[in-house]
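Section 5: illustrative case.
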């Protein structure tokens, strides 16, 4: 297989999306990729976070996860992006990172990569698909190759989201089925990136 660089870039306030991101990173690594697990910067003041024990606890627990930079996107062949649902949409923290990518986008550095996304909401109908579809709008603008999990593995018929791995936080922490789905999604994205890399010609308008 072609060597593949995979950046798992995510935001998580209370740890759910972090757990999905860890499973995605594991799946990408098992598929043979070199993986960077990266959290985007927090934008909410500490005084607000301190008022929510679960949020404050996760900030401490994830202190050793490196922060996402534009170099992580530039380096990656495949970018696996995670966000909690915020009113059916992408979290402001992830969006702030996305909105810092203008120069890299303009130089062509975001085009031609594989992109795939995962999410969590409080309830099953709380906006998982709308969040993933909103994130996909960004990938279109970047000229990305969107690789959703679809129903490409039996686990998808149990976890049930062809748009991207998703979890309802109100049901408790992510369990085995959703974590398996996350690993499958990562494997599929990495294998697609490897196949694209193997077949890519320098003159097709994509930076090698
Ligand atoms: C401002 C805000 C808006 C939210 N909007 C939604 C929503 O539209 N639907 C939903 O089901 N959950 C919503 N939630 C709940 C989060 O999506 C849920 O807590 C999240 O999945 C937890 O992920 P995390 O543990 O990685 O932070 C919202 C939470 C906050 C703080």
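Designed sequence:
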């Amino acid at each position: 297989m072609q060597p593949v660089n995979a950046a798992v870039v995510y935001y998580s306030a209370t740890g759910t999306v972090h757990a999905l991101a860890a499973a995605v990173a594991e799946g990408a690594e098992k598929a043979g990729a070199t993986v960077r697990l990266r959290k985007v910067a927090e934008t909410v003041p500490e005084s607000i976070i301190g008022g929510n024990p679960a949020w404050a606890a996760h900030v401490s627990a994830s202190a050793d996860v490196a922060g996402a930079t534009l170099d992580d996107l530039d380096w990656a062949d495949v970018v696996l992006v995670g966000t909690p649902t915020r009113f059916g949409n992408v979290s402001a923290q992830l969006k702030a990172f996305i909105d810092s990518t203008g120069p890299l986008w303009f130089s062509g550095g975001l085009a031609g990569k594989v992109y795939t996304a995962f999410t969590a909401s409080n309830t099953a109908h709380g906006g998982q698909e709308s969040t993933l579809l909103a994130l996909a709008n960004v990938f279109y603008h970047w000229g990305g190759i969107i690789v959703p999990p679809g129903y490409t593995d039996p686990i998808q018929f149990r976890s049930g989201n062809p748009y991207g791995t998703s979890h309802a936080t109100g049901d408790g922490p992510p369990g085995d089925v959703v974590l398996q789905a996350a690993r499958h999604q990562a494997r599929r994205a990495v294998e697609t990136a490897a196949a694209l890399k193997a077949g890519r010609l320098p003159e097709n308008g994509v930076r090698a």
